[in-house]
Design brief:
With 72 residues, the protein is α+β, with helices and mostly antiparallel strands. 29% of the residues lie in helices and 43% in strands. It is built from 2 helices and 5 strands. A 3-stranded mixed beta sheet has the order 2-5-4, covered by helices on one side. Strands 1-3 form a two-stranded antiparallel sheet. The relative contact order is 0.25.
Length: 72
C-alpha cells in the first residue's frame, strides 16, 4: 500500500510519513511548499527517496530520526 498526495503542503506529507514509519523528521526547507506524489509503506528507503527527490533534498537517518536538508 502507499500514501498519495496531490498539491498538499509538504508538512502533511511529513506527518503521514512519520505516522507510517514511526519516525521523527526534521527539515530546514519551507514545509508549506506543495507536494504531489506518493510513497510506499513497505520500504522506508524508497519512500524517503520519493519525498526528498522532488525538492532536491538529501536525507540522513539516525535510529528513528530522519533529517531532510537541501542538497549541497
Amino acid at each position: 500500500s502507499f500514501s498519495s498526495f496531490k498539491s498538499v503542503p509538504f508538512s502533511e506529507v511529513i506527518d503521514e510519513f512519520e505516522r507510517q514509519y514511526n519516525v521523527k523528521i526534521e527539515t530546514d526547507i519551507d514545509a508549506s511548499k506543495l507536494f504531489t506524489g506518493m510513497f510506499v509503506h513497505n520500504n522506508r528507503e524508497l519512500a524517503l527517496k520519493s519525498i526528498s527527490l522532488p525538492f532536491n533534498l538529501e536525507y540522513s537517518i539516525k535510529d528513528k530520526y530522519i533529517t531532510l536538508h537541501k542538497f549541497e
